[in-house]
Amino acid sequence: MKYTDIEITAESGLELLTNDEIARLSEHSQGGDHELFKKCVLAVLNSTQITDELDLYEEQLKYFDVEVLQLNKGVKLKLKNAPSSALVEGEMIQGLKEQVFSVLRDIVFLKQELESNSRIDFNTSNGCTNAIFHILRNAKALKPGIDPNIVVCWGGHAIPEFEYQYTKEVGYRLGLRGLDIITGCGIGAMKGPMKGALVGHSKQRKSNGRYIGITEPGIIAAESPNPIVNELIIMPDIEKRLETFVRLGHSFVVFPGGVGTAEEILYILGILLHPENKNSPFPLIFTGPKESSPYFERIDRFIGDTLGTEAQQKYKIIIDDPVAVAHAVQEGVYAVREYRKSTHDAFHFNWQLKIQWDFQEAFDPTHKNMSELNLNTNQPLHSLAANLRKAFSGIVAGNIKEKGISEVTKHGPYHINGDRNIMDQLDALLEAFVSQGRMKLNAADYVPCYRVLKPNKIEEHMPV
């Protein structure tokens, strides 16, 4: 791979800053924040590389650097040893340039904004929701006065080609109906719906299509933003990322995936199972091609055996029918619109949805925290869903996040334990993910970062 030095001028609203803000921005981009800033910028520039291996970026990081230059007319970034694949004729690709400045906005500028705002409090439930609103408003992602039309698409990055093509077809059908797309911004089932919607929007001459990518610092290097994303937003952690999806979206489509997709499913089901959300319309559709039918049968069985029929009633499964998916989404969006009107809730941000602190507090997947998760039936269903979500979140960290990989390398696999029935179902689901190659892109060399412990079995002690 070839590298080059380049300077780029500000985008994403950072072209309108005071000299004092620029000076503080330059200061915050150094020190402890600098390494994270570099990693996220490099991940954006490597969006053409289809990999979830961190080694690629770690080698490049040795030579890559980025510096914030102070100008009276705005901000300029000086990039050293940037991948030449991000440039055309010596100029950075415009979409990548916008994404780079989104990184500067959310990693550096937003941090100093939040630190100086005494009303922002990440240590309370209401504080988290207010902070998420602040971040989205700062990113200009909130569009008041527009009818609901945002579809959240979840699914895996490590999926076979036939599933990817199906996600494109569904996205195309959504785009023909003028619906915008939010995904986790990576490849696979995150890129496909955006690519399909782009074609649908083009056919309908919709020039203002929104392709919103929501990520977080721990995952961006492993799932670099795909080039279709025209609104990149980096949330502080996975919990804030997930809340952003449910506050911003109006309908939800889940494609086949792995543990990350299972985490998203359990997150949303846990919220919908809370009694205060019982009457809130929340369109949730699981879909894939006919070859993927066994995947959803396994997911549906896991949900039924752990959370029961009440949880199964919260979603609809549609197999091999993109048009039916688009119709269901459109009907769901209309129901959301009528409900928001009747309750005087905003179209652009779901304020009324009850999200408990257990779904908002950042979960640190240490070996101790993973082994102490309450995965027993002696708790409300929404609390069990919250803890199952954390178990899957830890596995995601152990698979692709730098900190999680380091934990597993030092101490061995995470130990997960709980009720025998839940552990049996969890073990079967994870085994299915492994056998189907859904854990990582390099599935052939996958070594599990976890062990599911079952009662009545003697296991050796795990250091914490």
From TrEMBL:
It catalyses: AMP + H2O = D-ribose 5-phosphate + adenine. Signal peptide: none annotated. SUPFAM superfamilies: MCP/YpsA-like (SSF102405). It comes from the Bacteria. GO terms for molecular function: AMP nucleosidase activity. Residues 7-113 form the Pyrimidine/purine nucleotide 5'-monophosphate nucleosidase N-terminal domain. Residues 335-452 form the Pyrimidine/purine nucleotide 5'-monophosphate nucleosidase C-terminal domain. GO terms for cellular component: cytosol. NCBIfam families: Nsidase_PpnN (NF038390). PANTHER family: CYTOKININ RIBOSIDE 5'-MONOPHOSPHATE PHOSPHORIBOHYDROLASE, PYRIMIDINE_PURINE NUCLEOTIDE 5'-MONOPHOSPHATE NUCLEOSIDASE. This is AMP nucleosidase. The lineage of its organism: Bacteria, Pseudomonadati, Pseudomonadota, Gammaproteobacteria, Kangiellales.
